[in-house]
Amino acid sequence: MPIGLYGQELPPERSYGRADDEMRPIKLTPNMMKNADGSCLAEFGDTRVICTATVEEGVPRWRKGAHAGWVTAEYAMLPASTNTRSKREYKGRKGRSMEIERLVGRSLRAVVDLKRLGEFTVTCDCDVIQADGGTRTASVTGAWVALYEALNRAVSRGQMKRLPLTGQVAAISMGLVHDKLLLDLDYSEDSKAQVDMNLVATDRGGIVEVQGTGERSTIDRVQLNTLLDMGQRGIEQLIQEQRNVTGFGR
C-alpha cells in the first residue's frame, strides 16, 4: 500500500485511474457464438464472461399446464479464469455457482412476460473466461443482451408473435474498501472489502435484488443510501450500453 508524506498508509490507486464512483471500461459484444440463438461477451475491465441464450420448445415438468414459459440460467468459471486453476465443475454444482445462476435467472425473469413467451424454455449460460471481480454482475448484464438476441430471433422465426421482453436488467457491485465507498469493485478491491454489495435493477429503476454483506465492518443508513445511489447511476450506464448494442427501447 502506498505511504503518504507523514508515513500513513494510503489507499491504492484504483484500476484505470478511475474515481470512487466510476466504473471500469465496459464492453458488450453481441453475436459472439455461431450456434447460439443469442450471445454476448461481457467485459467489465479484465473480467470477461461469455453469455449465451438458447430457446427450446417445452417447459419443465412442474411448469406444464401453466401456459407460460420459463427462463433459467447456468453459471461456471473456466479452470484458468483465475490466477490459480480451479477444478472444472461436472455434475456436482458448487454452492457459489448455484447461487449466481439463480440470481441470473431471477434477474432475467423480472423483465420477461412469461405468458407472452409461451411454452418455451430459454436457458442462459454464463461462462467466466477471465475473472477480476464482478463476474455475477457481468453475467446478469451480458445475459440480458444474449436473451434479447435469442428472443428476437425466435420472433423472426415465427415461434413467438412479439418480443416477450418488458424491459432491461443489469447489475453492478459496490462496497466499502479502505473506508471509502466504491463502485464496480475489481478483485483487488473485492478481496479486501469491508462491506460488499451487489445491485440488480431494471431500466425503469425497479430494484430486483440487493445483496450486501458486512465482511469486516458495518455501514450506516447514510452510507447504504450513498452506495445504492452510486449503484443506480452505474445501472443507468449499463442499460445505455445494452441499448447501444441491441437498439432495444429506441
Describe the structure.
- The protein has five helices and nine strands.
- Strand 2 and strand 3 (47-57) form a beta hairpin.
- The protein has helices at 95-109, 114-117, 135-156, 187-190, 221-246; strands spanning 26-30, 38-44, 47-57, 70-77, 120-130, 169-177, 180-183, 195-202, 207-214.
- The mean pLDDT is 91.
- A five-stranded mixed beta sheet has the order 1-2-3-5-4. The chain has a four-stranded antiparallel beta sheet with strand order 7-6-8-9, sandwiched between helices.
- It is α+β, with helices and mostly antiparallel strands and 250 residues long.
- The radius of gyration is 19 Å and the shape is globular.
Can you count the beta strands?
A: 9
Mean pLDDT: 91
- Kindly report the oligomeric state of this protein: single chain
Percent range of helical residues? 25-40%
| Cα separation of the termini | 46 Å
Shape: globular
Number of helices: 5
Sequence of secondary-structure elements: EEEEHHEHEEHEEH
Strand content of the residues, in percent?
25-35%
Low-pLDDT regions: none
Using only C-alpha atoms, the radius of gyration works out to 19 Å
Largest sheet: 5 strands, mixed
Widest beta sheet: strand line-up: 1-2-3-5-4
Content-based structural category: alpha+beta
Task: Give the tags.
28% helix; 9 strands; alpha+beta; 250 residues
Blueprint (SSEs and pairs):
Blueprint: E1 26-30, E2 38-44, E3 47-57, E4 70-77, H1 95-109, H2 114-117, E5 120-130, H3 135-156, E6 169-177, E7 180-183, H4 187-190, E8 195-202, E9 207-214, H5 221-246
